[in-house]
Design goal:
This protein is elongated. Helices cover about 25% and strands about 35% of the residues. Bound molecules: adenosine-5'-triphosphate. The site of adenosine-5'-triphosphate has 12 residues, from strand 2 and helix 1.
Length: about 350
């Protein structure tokens, strides 16, 4: 099982009646990569996954798996396999028959499909439970049966719809590591739908952040986190302050924006037209407290709230026309000289910790 296929989604839309769930998205998922489709409820990630699987028709556009256009092929002929959120196991069948089910549908004769199912159960370390029914297993074991059942068809790509959501937090983290290990050892393309940025960061080679049926950014976890393309991505990934204003200056290094009724802020790495609405992002953990701000790279604000988090402390500040500006500092730094609500504190950051965010048309 070493074959893997690139998935090429070209200008694909999904329209349900009057609702456009997916707006002409284009995306190439490299062969053998772990891709997470990430976004809030209703952003179109499940529709996208189901169109790749063939469980949902494609309203317009094309999907290729490797060199094959699969747009109009039924699920079983695409070379993909899907693992459902609820696992969709048959309660009255034992594990061998659950796992062998799709081979039975394909007309594979009994001995061969039992042998393949047992091999698959062995791969998932479920061999001792082969004669049990799903209800006699733990949540994590049921998930492994669902994986075995999807993988028995020897797919080029495995599609997973919120595969960890039914598990308790402890098991979720353990199964997450197992999924990653499995993907690495099989070498096939995984596409995994999740609304958890932490899960996507932990697993993915490519994170595709979706919002309102569109792709806001598709890049490595590090790029998505350190260089969010849009205000939506910066907010959704968390740990960024988004400052919105209008561009008042531009130069080769970037732009300066002015916040409505407030201060001016510089950011690198972006372009803008004078007078245009613009957003910049500043990492919450890159802001320094009590160092005097120099032009455009900080401001003095009033502390609104202080939250102790153990190894760090979260401080929320208002000032210069910016509300709820969040600063995360280490517990050591905080307790050396604590601040409290009502205190005025200067904040500053380095030029390369403020980046210009793009806007996409909705
Ligand atoms: N069968 C359907 N008929 C009509 N509208 C649908 C159908 N399925 C999904 N939608 C709508 O399409 C949009 C995208 O749904 P989709 O399930 O793809 O989102 P999602 O990002 O996977 O959300 P969730 O995380 O809640 O599953 C939503 O507005 C949803 O209400």
């Amino acid at each position: 099982m070493t074959k893997a296929a690139e998935i090429d989604i070209a200008s694909v839309s999904k329209i349900y009646g009057h609702t456009t769930a997916v707006h002409a998205i284009s995306l190439k998922i490299p062969a053998g990569s772990y891709c997470c489709l990430l976004g809030p409820s209703g952003c179109g990630k499940t529709s996208t996954l189901r169109m790749i699987a063939g469980h949902e028709s494609i309203s317009s556009g094309d999907i290729r798996l490797g060199s094959k256009v699969v747009t109009d092929l039924p699920p079983a002929r695409r070379g993909t396999a899907m693992m459902f959120q609820s696992y969709a196991l048959f309660p009255h069948l034992d594990l061998v028959d659950n796992v062998a089910f799709s081979l039975k549908m394909k007309g594979v004769e009994k001995e061969e499909r039992r042998r393949k199912a047992l091999d698959m159960l062995k791969l998932m370390q479920l061999e001792p439970y082969a004669t049990r029914r799903p209800a006699q297993l733990s949540g994590g074991q049921q998930q492994r049966v669902a994986l075995a059942r999807a993988l028995i068809t020897d797919p080029e790509a495995l599609l997973l719809d919120e595969p960890l959501s039914a598990l308790d937090p402890f098991l979720k983290i353990r199964m997450r590591a197992e999924l990653k290990k499995l993907q690495t050892s099989l070498g096939i393309t995984f596409v995994h739908v999740t609304h958890s940025q932490e899960e996507a960061m932990a697993l993915a080679d490519i994170i595709v952040v979706m919002n309102d049926g569109r792709i806001e950014q598709a890049a490595s976890p590090r790029t998505v986190f350190e260089r969010p393309a849009t205000a939506f991505v910066a907010r959704f990934m968390g740990d960024h302050n988004v400052i919105s204003g209008r561009t008042v200056e531009t130069d080769a290094n970037g732009i300066t924006i002015e916040v409505n009724g407030g201060g001016r802020f510089q950011a690198i790495d972006g372009k803008g037209e004078i007078g245009e609405a613009a957003d910049i992002a500043v990492r919450t953990d890159r802001v320094r407290l009590r160092e005097t701000a120099y032009a455009g790279l900080g401001f003095t604000g009033i502390v609104q709230n202080v939250e102790y988090r153990g190894s760090s402390v979260k401080i929320v500040v208002n000032g210069a026309g910016v509300e709820d500006f969040t600063v995360i500092i280490s517990d050591t730094e905080y307790f050396a000289t604590p601040v409290k609500p009502g205190d005025a504190v200067p904040l500053s950051w380095n030029a390369d910790d403020a980046i210009v965010l793009g806007r996409i048309q909705h």
